[in-house]
Amino acid sequence: MLATKIMSEAGFYWLTRVKVQGTLTCDANSQVKRYELYQFLQSFCPFRQELSEWVSKRTRQSQGANGIDVNVRWGKTEKLPCRLLAVRVPQEVAHQRHRQLRARLQEKGKTPSQRQLQMADGTVLATNVEEHLLSLYAAIALLRLRWQIKLLFKLWKQHGRLDQRLGESG
Fold this sequence. Notes:
globular
């Protein structure tokens, strides 16, 4: 959180995946309300009519039916202004995430909670980039691209000895 605050103050853009836990504040019906991330995402459920109406007024038109793009203030104390982006992943991706989560926790002798499994059903991001520069789906694509670049560098380090060659001159 501190790094994103420093980057924002320096005028840099940032895009980050949001952890399962976190606190955010938003203006709902002219009232400032504080939410835990999971609670906030659950409030987008169509069964909650009042919040659903509020969301439809404040979510971006370009996001489509399966995404959330809302201005919030992130953090319990810092309250960093940003956009909260969330999109539901395809069912096969969600099942893969569930398997990975179960395997990771099983190594520690634990089982995943219902909340953890539900959070694995989507991707949640935060950014300070304005919507006209970065749409919800462009942010998701950028996150995937970043991951591919990270894997490429890992491959180069393992097989191309990139980490050893960085100190050499041409």
